[in-house]
Amino acid sequence: MPPAAPHLELRHIHKTYNEQTRALAGVDLTIATGEIVSLLGPSGCGKSTLLRIIAGLEIPDQGEVLLDGVSLRGVPVHRRHFGLMFQDFALFPHLNVADNIAFGLRMAGQPDTAIRSRVAAMLGLVNLEGYGDRSIFELSGGERQRVALARSLAPEPALLMLDEPLGSLDRGLREELLEELRAILRTTGVTAVYVTHDQDEALALSDRIVIMRAGRIEQVGTPQTIYTHPANDFVARFLGFENLLPAQLRPPAAPGAGAVAQTPIGPFPLRGAPPAPGDYTLLIRPEAARLAVSGTDSRAHGWGFHPAPEPEAVLLRGEVVACTYRGREYRVQVRVPAPTQPVELRFDLPAFQRSAARQGLAANQLPAPGTPLDLLIYPGLATLLALDTPSKAAPDRQA
Ligand code: ADP
């Protein structure tokens, strides 16, 4: 749902660097005051270009950026009153921590007493009390990032832009800082635009995520919406989903009959209101499977989907390609022979399931490749996705 009171508006933004490279091909986006919005997409999709256009570092060929309804056309970077935090954050090495944080305030000509109290407040905000006199060289990578954040927040920017700010840090530190960053952004109430190619970062941090591809927006939504209802199979693949099957939906055989998607490995019953008949991609989430309890007579069936003994599930008969124990779950890769080529699916099976042992699943005794495996698949955890339409997304950007 578009925010009620737009703070930042992007209208029909286009940007071409040269004849082959159309970086942005018509971007419209509205951001509300206090929102944390992530721009998420693969490398080269135009995220940084969009951020640079908002900042005033790049001029769009067409389109407009508006702040509180006022066009920023012709307003230079330093007059926009926006904060920037980039991956190569470049703190001033000759200044100590306090002077780095004070930099923007000094440039704005604020009096010393106001600067001192603001710097102290910022040090508290980023949990670096007592670090004011330290040299930049006495800080860890994470501490430097917190100083960079404090420096960009000190002048109370109308908008904070962050471009892969955690990109240079290792995974553990990144997760820790991510939580801290979200808490700090929330505390200050600053409106933030966060650029990343890391879906986990975007999911954890954002109020809304904008998925970009080849200079266009593919989907905008809350993290929950994007994750549970990816708009198409490009978005699903980008979020890391792997179980994507071509599927045809035909009109129901009889009025009131449930909708069934035809896949290369058999018919799959759908839950909820089905979309219009046509071609789709069926996404089956990795958590949609359980081991079938013994007693199914699936050995009599062929490979693929079959009606299950439990009415709310579908039986999937395949064979193990690989199985790994991960503590809380088994990750199992299943091959299902199909008429043209075999289909491979991956599922996370809860390790605590009682029937696990019965099917020979134990941490010290994993099924060998080739072992037949029966799974119950719960259609409530599967979704039909619109087909990916790359031609629509990038008609003229095949450089
Ligand atoms: P992202 O931030 O999503 O990785 P960018 O906005 O950096 O994407 O780049 C979008 C496209 O524009 C890419 O094809 C990139 O090569 C191109 N591009 C970016 N900056 C320039 C530039 N200064 N000159 C020419 N092409 C550029």
In short:
The chain is of the alpha+beta class.
Give structural notes.
The chain is of the alpha+beta class and 399 residues long. Helices cover 24% and strands 32% of the residues. It has a six-stranded mixed beta sheet, with helices on both faces. Strands 15, 16, 17, 18, 19 and 20 form a six-stranded antiparallel beta sheet that branches. A five-stranded antiparallel beta sheet has the order 13-12-11-14-21. The longest helix has 18 residues, at 171-188. The two termini are 35 Å apart. The structure holds adenosine-5'-diphosphate. Adenosine-5'-diphosphate (ADP) binds next to helix 1. Adenosine-5'-diphosphate binds at residues 17, 21, 23, 41, 43-49.
Write a concise keyword list for the protein shown above.
399 residues, alpha+beta, Rossmann fold, 2 domains, six-stranded mixed β-sheet, six-stranded antiparallel β-sheet, 11 helices, 21 strands, 24% helix, 32% strand, disordered C terminus, binds adenosine-5'-diphosphate
> Span between N and C termini?
35 Å
Query: Based on DSSP secondary structure assignment, what is the total number of beta strands?
Result: 21
The description of the largest β-sheet is: 6 strands, mixed
Mean pLDDT: 88
Number of helices: 11
- Spatial order of strands in the largest sheet: 6-7-8-3-9-10
